């Protein structure tokens, strides 16, 4: 680098982590180039916006940080530095005000990602951040240069620092296909296998059930597994079950299925009623009325919920119609569903696994590659739904940007991530 010249930093990946790193770096005085294999930046970020763009969560910090499980101690400093409040202030600096929903989740008032992304890209453009789409990173050459396959063929770059922010492996058609694991592992960096996070599961539904109820919701249910209970909604798929309540339990369910080949999930279809209340109502029913009619009218169960009870009963030694009132109440309160597999990672909301934190220093720099930093979903953490993944992606992107500035001798404190 020539005396007086601005250091050049390459950011690989144009998702939330990469773009946040680029902003911090540009504010700190670096010349920044962002490379991404897709035709346009933020593809998966835009997909997240289809569900309302849950940016972060408003819960107390000590509760929030525990959501990251074993990775919490390694993420704490980054999230403290770029907290949920800082993320909200940053959004509002881009003209997108936010609000806290009834669940404590934080959303932009517009409920979309596109206005926020447009404003963000305009800001980065005003900072002279250069975006290079359709550039696929294939690793390092023998001299340590970055190698890209771009529209004009193979190119090599030797920037002053690098931030890797290539995402996980879910929704690969949007850019994050996990292809980076090969080049990273090739240079000796330990990578935990990428696995589905916040994912659906496979159930051996009967042909009638999956053809009749595929896509049907199960609303206001309660799921139980391993001593944890979650209320919410789920969706019946042709191959199994997915949805918000399922995602909340996906990490422990996945671990058990990987170890034992199956897991038993219990679904309460009327979680608002006690088992004794259910039994009394069932005992008092008019025996002239069919069971399905009674369940639909008196118990307020949707057809999909009734069919789910039938599926659970068929998998047990007894039929639903032959159950005693007490046993049927138990089934409504905890219908056992046998999960026999994890849905493919391509359909998962997020990814677990990635670069081991032991490979990184406190500033997210790779010990085996000085001057190379890593951020976002390519790190080895598993975040539940609720805004936690985006919060960690933004925060680690900002932390990696600050780390790169410090490594280059620039003043990271002059580059706050919020305006």
Q: Layout of SSEs?
A:
Blueprint: E1 8-12, H1 16-27, E2 31-35, H2 43-48, E3 56-57, H3 61-66, H4 72-81, H5 84-93, E4 98-100, E5 105-108, H6 114-126, E6 130-132, E7 136-140, E8 146-150, E9 153-157, E10 161-164, H7 181-186, E11 191-197, E12 201-203, H8 207-213, E13 217-225, E14 228-236, E15 240-242, H9 244-248, H10 250-260, E16 263-268, H11 275-283, H12 291-297, H13 303-314, H14 325-333, E17 335-342, E18 350-355, E19 372-374, H15 388-407
Parallel strand pairs: 1-2, 1-10, 2-6, 10-19
Antiparallel strand pairs: 3-5, 4-5, 7-8, 8-9, 11-18, 12-15, 12-17, 13-14, 13-16, 14-15, 16-17
Helix pairs in contact: 1-15, 4-15, 11-14
What does this structure look like?
This protein is of the alpha+beta class and 419 residues long. The chain is built from 15 helices and 19 strands. It has helices at 16-27, 43-48, 61-66, 72-81, 84-93, 114-126, 181-186, 207-213, 244-248, 250-260, 275-283, 291-297, 303-314, 325-333, 388-407, and strands at 8-12, 31-35, 56-57, 98-100, 105-108, 130-132, 136-140, 146-150, 153-157, 161-164, 191-197, 201-203, 217-225, 228-236, 240-242, 263-268, 335-342, 350-355, 372-374. The strands form 5 sheets. A 6-stranded antiparallel β-barrel has the order 12-15-14-13-16-17. A 5-stranded parallel sheet has the order 6-2-1-10-19, with helices on one face. The chain has a 3-stranded antiparallel sheet with strand order 3-5-4. Strand 13 (217-225) and strand 14 (228-236) form a beta hairpin. Helix 1 packs parallel to helix 15. The longest helix has 20 residues, at 388-407. It is elongated and about 85 Å long. The two termini are 29 Å apart. The relative contact order is 0.19.
